[in-house]
Structure to design on (391 residues):
C-alpha cells in the first residue's frame, strides 16, 4: 500500500467511493456523489490520507478536521478524525492501522494537542490510545410545563442565514467556557449556515448574545425538533426555554440536545421530561479522545498536586512526565520518579475528567501507587466533557 495525501478536489473521486460504500444507502450512491462534490469547498483544510494499491487505486482512507477544543479551560488545537473506511476486499490487512497512525503523527506535528472521534466500535480505537467520553443526551418535554417568570432579556426568531453571525458568537462563547466543547474551523463551520432551520437567539437586556437554538417544526400540532440548546449560562437557557413555552398551542412536544451534565428535571416545577442517552454501535457511539502532545497540556486547568507518571506504549506521549498543579494551572515537565504507570488512554481519561484514578485501574488502563490515587484525583477532578461537534 502506498500512502498519499489528497486535497478536497480529489475527495469526490477517491474518498467518496470508499466512505459512501461504508456509510450511505446503496440506492443513493449516484445522487449523493454530486452533493458531496459541491460540499467539498468546505473541506479545503481537511487532511485526507488514502492508501492505494497498485492497479486498483484507493483502498482505504482516513481524514482529520482541524478543530479547536476546550480542555479544562484551555482551548487547544484538536484533530477531529473522520472518513475512516477501507474497501471490503482489502479489510483486515492493516491498511487503516497504518493510515491512522500516520494521520495522528501528521496532525500532532501540525500542532494538534488532542484528537477526538466518534467510533463505530470503541475497541478498534482503543488500540490507538483513545478513551470513551460521554455522549450527548436528548431532552423531550411538553411546552406547557415550563416556568413563566419575567426575565431580563429577549429572544429573537431568525432564519439560520439571518442569525448565523450571532450563532457563531454563541459557539465561541460556549467553547470558551465549556470543558470538552469543540469547534470546526471557520471554513467547515460555514457549511452549517446553509441548513434550512429556524434560529432562536437569546439576548440579555444589554444586547449581549446569551444563547441560541437551531430548530425545525415538523408539523402543526407535532414537534419542535431542536438541535443543541446552547447557552453561555442559566439566563440564556431560561430565555430559550421561555421561548419554547410560547409554542404551547403549536406543538405537542419539544426536544433538544444537551450536554452530559444537564439536569432538565430541574428546569421547571411541574415539568414532565424525558432524558435519553442512547449508545449503540456502529451508529451511536459515544465520542472518544486522546492526548497527542504532553507539552500542549501546559497551562490547562488543574487542582493542586504534584505527581510524576510514566506513560507507556505510545509513539507520541510515552515517557516520564511530572505533572504539577498550582494556582489552578497545570505545568508539565519531564523526568522524576513515577508513582503511576499509565497507558495513553488512562492518561487521557484523567485529563478529560471522565474516569477516576481508581476507574483507570479497574478499566485496565494503568497502575497507580496507593499514595498517588488521591493526588491524581485532586490534580484532575472529575469534569464531564461536552464535545458538541458531530463529525
Ligand atoms: C473499520 C474498518 C475501517 C477497519 O478497516 P481495516 O482495514 O479492516 O482495519 P485494519 O486491518 O487496519 O485493522 C486495524 C486493527 O484493528 C483490528 N480490527 C479490525 N476491525 C475491528 C473491529 N471491528 N473491532 C475491533 N478491532 C478491529 C484489526 O484486527 C487490527 O488489529 P491489529 O492492529 O492488532 O492487527 C473497516 O472495516 C470499514 O471500512 N468498516 C466500515 C466503515 C466503518 O465502520 N468505519 C469506521 C467509522 S468510525
Amino acid at each position: 500500500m502506498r500512502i498519499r495525501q489528497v486535497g478536497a478536489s480529489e475527495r469526490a473521486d477517491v474518498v467518496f467511493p470508499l466512505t459512501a460504500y461504508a456509510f450511505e444507502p446503496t440506492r443513493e450512491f449516484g445522487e449523493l456523489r454530486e452533493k458531496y462534490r459541491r460540499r467539498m469547498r468546505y473541506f479545503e483544510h481537511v487532511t485526507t490520507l488514502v492508501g492505494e494499491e497498485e492497479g486498483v487505486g484507493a483502498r482505504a482512507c482516513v481524514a482529520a478536521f482541524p478543530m479547536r477544543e476546550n480542555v479544562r479551560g484551555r482551548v487547544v488545537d484538536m484533530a477531529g478524525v473522520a472518513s475512516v473506511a477501507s474497501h471490503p476486499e482489502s479489510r483486515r490487512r492493516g491498511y487503516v492501522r497504518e493510515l491512522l497512525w500516520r494521520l495522528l503523527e501528521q496532525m500532532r506535528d501540525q500542532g494538534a494537542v488532542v484528537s477526538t472521534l466518534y467510533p463505530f466500535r470503541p475497541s478498534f480505537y482503543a488500540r490507538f490510545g483513545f478513551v470513551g467520553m460521554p455522549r450527548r443526551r436528548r431532552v423531550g418535554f411538553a411546552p406547557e410545563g415550563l416556568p413563566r417568570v419575567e426575565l431580563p432579556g429577549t429572544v429573537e426568531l431568525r432564519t439560520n442565514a439571518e442569525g448565523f453571525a450571532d450563532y457563531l458568537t454563541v459557539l465561541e462563547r460556549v467553547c470558551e467556557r465549556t470543558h470538552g466543547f469543540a469547534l470546526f474551523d471557520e471554513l467547515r463551520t460555514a457549511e452549517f449556515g446553509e441548513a434550512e432551520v429556524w434560529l432562536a437567539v437569546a439576548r440579555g437586556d444589554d444586547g449581549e448574545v446569551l444563547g441560541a437554538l437551531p430548530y425545525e417544526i415538523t408539523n402543526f400540532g407535532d414537534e419542535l425538533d431542536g438541535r443543541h440548546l446552547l447557552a453561555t449560562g442559566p439566563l440564556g437557557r431560561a430565555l430559550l426555554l421561555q421561548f419554547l413555552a410560547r409554542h404551547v398551542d403549536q406543538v405537542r412536544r419539544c426536544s433538544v440536545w444537551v450536554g452530559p451534565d444537564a439536569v432538565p428535571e430541574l428546569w421547571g416545577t411541574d415539568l414532565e421530561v424525558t432524558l435519553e442517552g442512547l449508545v449503540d454501535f456502529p451508529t451511536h457511539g459515544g465520542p472518544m479522545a486522546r492526548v497527542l502532545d504532553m507539552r500542549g497540556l501546559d497551562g490547562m486547568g488543574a487542582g493542586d498536586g504534584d505527581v510524576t507518571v510514566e506513560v507507556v506504549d505510545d509513539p507520541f506521549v510515552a515517557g516520564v512526565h511530572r505533572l504539577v498543579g498550582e494556582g489552578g494551572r497545570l505545568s508539565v515537565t519531564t523526568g522524576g520518579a513515577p508513582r503511576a504507570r499509565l497507558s495513553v488512554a488512562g492518561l487521557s481519561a484523567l485529563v478529560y475528567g471522565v474516569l477516576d484514578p481508581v476507574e483507570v485501574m479497574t478499566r485496565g488502563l494503568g497502575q497507580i501507587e496507593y499514595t498517588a490515587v488521591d493526588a491524581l484525583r485532586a490534580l484532575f477532578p472529575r469534569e464531564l466533557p461536552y464535545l458538541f461537534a458531530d463529525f
Remarks:
- The pocket of coenzyme A is lined by residues 22, 60, 84-86, 91-97, 119-121, 123-124, 127, 282 (CB under 6 Å).
- DSSP finds eleven helices and 21 strands in the chain.
